[in-house]
Amino acid sequence: MTPDAATDRPSVQPTAVFPLLAEPITYFACLWDLAKTDDRRAYWLGLFREHYEGLLELAMADALDRGVANDRAEEQVANARAGFGAFLKQVEAEPNVFGPLTILLMCEARERCLRRANIPDPYRLAKQQENETAMALLPAVFAEIDALAGADRIDRIMRGVFAGNIFDLGAVKTIEMFKDGKVDFHHTLSKLKGRPWFVDHLDAWRDRWLNGPTHQCAVMFVDNAGPDVLLGMVPFARELLRRGTGVILTANETPALNDVTHAELIVLIDRIAEIDPLINEALKSGELELVSSGNGAPLIDLRRVDSRLAEAVYRRDVDLCVIEGMGRAIETNFDAAFNCDTLKLAMIKDLGVGEAMGAELYDLVLRFDPA
Q1: 369, 342 contact by CB (below 8 A)
Q2: 282 pLDDT exceeds 60?
Q3: Is position 37 within any domain?
Q4: What is the pLDDT of residues 170-189, one digit of tens each?
Q5: Alpha carbon 111 to chain centroid, angstroms
Q6: What single-letter DSSP state applies at residue 365?
Q7: Cα separation, 180 vs 26, whole angstroms
């Protein structure tokens, strides 16, 4: 893989700088340059190698489910293994060959290697299964929230975001939990770490919610499929809509790990609209809008989002930005400043991320930065 091949970033739609970045000139999505730290670089290279093998097992199962012949599927997996293996060897030998060596750069290289090997979405079957499980629970989750009021209601919504965020097949520790059948939304909700959380701005956010003016419109960067988006972020979006705040839900354009894609989210929201009048009305009126982020990785560089997202943010006068998930809210954008109220929400599910942050596994981050 040549340096040009490793760093090209093809896009179907024109890209734009996210309009609400406060300092786009000095903004850098991922501040961890692994080329500068030998032990951290070794950790992440080892993690990507280990994780990729499990990913290729899923790719094989997905190909066979789609009717790809066994020999052809094995060839695709072999090509994907060789392509990404060559990339990892190159950056291991020359860490600065493509500039700063970031987790984002490695994620984007991995996705390109999969697409070049004609592997479209290794996590398709896992996402479908988790979406169905979460969809069955959704009416009860709505009812649980609707039975609460005031601070209790806000706290339950935020805790639901954390409980859903554990559905992450990009983190080795949570992959092990899913293989063992140990992940259950309500069980996770009951076992979340107690306050104070690692970053705990819940009191400030609650005060803004209860005592401040209603936000005009929120843009919400969602993360994983299944319980994450359906039982965590959708109830949050629904509550914003109930308060009179418009909502833009933005998801990846192309598959990356088990992140929900824009196309998948459209189908899921349409299904929810059939069972929930509030979501149905918001969708019909345009108060709830779904726009692709243009992204194709678990992390995101806000200097290059889909131009249609930038247009929607301008058009809707967005004054609340919600960034959810370890990749988008911690590994990238944790210290990014915005010209609006901003929430960054995530559960820490990786030892390397925890070490970099000075945190422990399953620590919780609710960072609220007022405009």
Answers
A1: yes
A2: yes
A3: no
A4: 677 677 666 666 568 999 99
A5: 15
A6: E
A7: 44
Q: Please classify residue 274 by burial: count the beta carbons closer than 10 Å to its beta carbon, then call 0-12 exposed, 13-18 middle and 19+ buried.
A: exposed
**Within a domain: 76:** no
CA dihedral 28, 363, 240, 19 (to 10 degrees): 0
The answer to whether 222 and 324 have CB atoms below 8 angstroms apart is yes
Provide the H-helix boundaries in 165-246: 172-179, 185-191, 202-211, 227, 234-243
Please check whether residue 104 lies inside any domain of the structure.
no
Quick check: bond before 196 cis, omega within 30?
Answer: yes
Q: CA 90, CA 200: separation in Å to the nearest integer?
A: 40
Mean pLDDT for 108-114 is: 98
Edge-to-edge strand ranges of the sheet holding 364-369: 199-200, 364-369, 341-347, 320-324, 217-221, 246-251, 288-292
Does 102 reside within a domain? no
Amino acid 353: pLDDT: 97
Count of structural domains, the chain: 1
Q: Specify the pairing of strand 341-347 against strand 320-324.
A: parallel
Nearest CA to 124 out of 258, 254, 267 is that of: 258
What percent of the chain has pLDDT above 70? Answer: 94
> What's the pLDDT tens digit per position in 71-83?
999 999 999 999 9
Amino acid symbol at 290: L
> Residue 152: which CATH number?
3.40.50.10880
Range of the domain at 352: 127-369
Report percent pLDDT > 90 for the chain. Answer: 91
